[in-house]
Amino acid sequence: MTTSTTRPAQQTTAEQPITLGLPLDEPQPPEDCGVCAALVKQRAEARGRGDMSKVSDLNVEIRSHHASRPRKRR
């Protein structure tokens, strides 16, 4: 005897559409920081090469360079 089972249709999409926010503005580092100045130069070079992934990475690094970070306790 052959029995047939019906499976429910498989859902292949997300329940709700994904909503992304607008990208952040490029960080403007302080003028008196040599590290930030070097990062800004690298960012301009990466943009000139069309390497937008590197531009994004450098923006994160510039943004976090002067951010206060919690220190690890020993």
Structure, described:
- The protein has 74 residues and is mostly helical.
- Helices cover 41% and strands 0% of the residues.
- It has 2 helices and no strands.
- It has helices at 34-49, 52-65.
- Helix 1 runs antiparallel to helix 2.
- The longest helix is centred in the middle third of the chain and has 16 residues, at 34-49.
- The mean pLDDT is 83.
User: Which band does the percent of strand residues land in?
Assistant: under 5%
Structural class: mainly alpha
Question: What is the helix tally?
Answer: 2
- Low-confidence runs of at least 5 consecutive residues: none
The count of DSSP E runs of length 2 or more, i.e. the number of strands, is 0
List SSEs in N-to-C order: HH
| Biggest sheet statistics | none
Our Rg estimate from Cα atoms comes to 24 Å
Overall geometry: elongated
Give average pLDDT, whole number.
Answer: 83
N-to-C CA distance: 71 Å
- Percent in helix: 40-55%
In short:
This protein is an all-alpha fold and about 70 residues long. The protein starts with about 35 loop residues before the first helix and ends in a 9-residue tail after the last helix.
Blueprint (SSEs and pairs):
Elements: H1 34-49, H2 52-65
Short descriptors:
74 residues; mainly alpha; 2 helices
